[in-house]
Amino acid sequence: MGNFTSIVYKEIKELMRDPKILFGVVLLPLLLYPLMGQGLQISQQSVETAIKGAQFSVYSDDSGQIASILVQYITQNNNVTNIQSPGLGDALVKFKDSSSVAMVYVPNGYSQNITDGLKGRVKIYANLKNLNIAEASGAEVAGSLVSVYNYYYSLAIIKELMVVTGNLGSPVAIHDPLSISYASIIKGNVIEVAPSQITSLIVSQSIMLPIMVMMMVIFAIQMAATSIALEKEQKTLETLMTLPVGRLTILSGKLAGSVVIAVAGSISYMIGFSYYTSSAFSFAPQLTSVDLTGVGIGIQPIGYALLGIVMFVTLVSALALAISLAVFTDSVRSAQSLTGVLIVPLIIPAMILMFSDIEMLPPTIQWIMLAIPYTHTMLATKAAFLGNYWIIIRSIAYISAFTVLVLWIAAKIFSTERILTARFTSFSFRKKKAQAN
Amino acid sequence: MRDLRKSFGNFQALKGVTFRVEEREIFGLIGPNGAGKTTTLRVLGTLISPTSGVVEVFGRDVVKEAESVREILSYLPEEAGAYQYLSGEEYLRFMAGFYAHERSAVEEMVQAGKDISGLGDRLNDRVNEYSRGMKRRLLIARALMIKPKLAILDEPTSGLDVIQAYHVRGMIRDYAEKIGVTILVSSHNMLEVEYLCHRVALMNEGNIVSEGTPEELKLRYNAVNLEQAFMEATQLG
């Protein structure tokens, strides 16, 4: 086994046998996300069940025929209590003490208004005893019930008027005389899909990639920082530096070992996260089943290849940066808190680009964002969807230049005595005088 | 080593250290904390560069020929640890891999390490299950199993109890005699050095204040042991 392979093998063994890393990076995402998904699914299901079995009340102050048709419609469709009361105040007291989540109130004058060609007013009261979603949704269900009635009742009125006026046509067309349909032009192709459907599809897919990139880089940073800090904490680095092996071999061996664990962590995260999204949002209707690959949206093989290069240079730069910082610490804890600072420039672009485009930001913010190398990783993932390969190549060039710079710094630190003597204390570098003897 | 000087910023750790260790000799550097022992050993171990002076290991310059020096020396830092999630044997095999490239040579080296450590079946356990003494025995075995031309042992019995320190000293002496390795030991335990070393240099405040065999030093300062000789030599007594 060569020196490099030997170091990589040792790194992987050490990191994988560390229970904190094995559990925190590899096992936790596999357990936590499915559990979170299940939890969310259970709570959503219980809300749905509560809504389905919700009880309603109806109280009418109007004794007219038209009002009683509405009351009759509501009572025959659901588990509804028809409150008999001398006035609204008393009805509300009865409603408050009942198990109903919503009460449809038909005020006096409802029938008269409709007879006079005016709007008949209806009010819905929600009984928020526990201030939960199921109660609020119950009121909305009662509202929908009245809306359905409203639609068919309006059609019936239109039909009656058509008979009187001798008008021809469909009551539905008169109710909604205009019908709007959408189409989108993408890269010169007209496709019969609403723009909102396309954007929601791209957003739902492109959100996953920045999250994955962000998580993978965070894992890698933690791995590399932990690995180097462990060597310093256990005082094994000093021995390693006196072995007949090049300093760059030690550095690259450590980087490679961390990359392997980071990739394992990312895969485990993705499995856990996709299980989470599939179980947590299983109740939600599918946004669209539109296949956009035919019009050039979606990642093509060349896009995947370029994205792979982007991920690789991103990982190497993050690892080299983490190692360069971690050598100035003397314990795992201080290395992790110091490298925690690196997570900020990762999270900010990921969060911003998840919900907006870089072009939509003010110019100053755009420049600041573009100066952060990891912004380019996020931009590349979005560009891969749209087949804008020049943006990806630009990203690779920028991140690579940054990576070369950081690797050069890391190699410099590794090839000098600074790796043993320098220490990061109270935001200032000082020589580790105490360790001189 | 001639006129070795080393500064950290404004702090002068070594102020012109000169000494020579003969082949197959066990040479001791003794002195209190802060005397400059570890800095001297780190320069020899190619870990830090001298500010000035000439340091050679078997004719190879530690700055210009650092990689070549690393092939013939073995360095054991003070309070060094081993990879806690590897077993003792895995650790020895990992280290042997840097010095031997043939499988049989690696196995031979690992076997030597096992014999020197005397840890027996405990070598199959992970290092994080070892006592301090066991870890030190493993590390000394690692340092000696490669049959270096020069072994640098910084405070080899630091932090060990009397019994563990006794065993470790025995290991070093036995193995040095058996394979004829040159050993440079640093310690602030004067009695340990007197037991182990053929010749000794007394260090204080970045300087060598005296050098010779333990007997010569005791005679020179009319002392009953090295501790007293050191106090006389540094005029602290």
Termini separation of chain B comes to 29 Å
Q: What is the general shape of chain A? A: elongated
Biggest beta sheet attributes of chain B: 6 strands, mixed
**Main CATH class of the domain at 2-80 and 148-233 in chain B:** Alpha Beta
Indicate the mean pLDDT of chain B.
91
How many runs of DSSP E, i.e. beta strands of chain B? 11
- Report the mean per-residue pLDDT of chain A as an integer: 81
> What's the number of helices of chain A?
16
List descriptors:
heterodimer, A: alpha/beta, abc type-2 transporter like fold, 4-stranded mixed sheet, two-stranded antiparallel ribbon, 16 helices, 7% strand, disordered C terminus, B: alpha/beta, Rossmann fold, 3-stranded antiparallel sheet, 9 helices, 22% strand
Describe this structure in words.
The complex is a heterodimer of chains A (437) and B (237). Chain A contains 16 helices and 8 strands. By secondary structure, chain A is α/β, with parallel strands linked by helices. The longest helix of chain A is centred in the middle third of the chain and has 39 residues, at 195-233. Chain B has 237 residues and is of the alpha/beta class. Chain B has 9 helices and 11 strands. In chain B, strands 7-8-9-3-10-11 form a 6-stranded mixed beta sheet, with helices on both faces. A 3-stranded antiparallel beta sheet of chain B has the order 2-1-4, with no helix packed on it. In chain B, α6 (162-179) links the parallel β8 (150-154) and β9. Chains A and B meet through α1 and α9 of A and α1, α2, β7 and α3 of B.
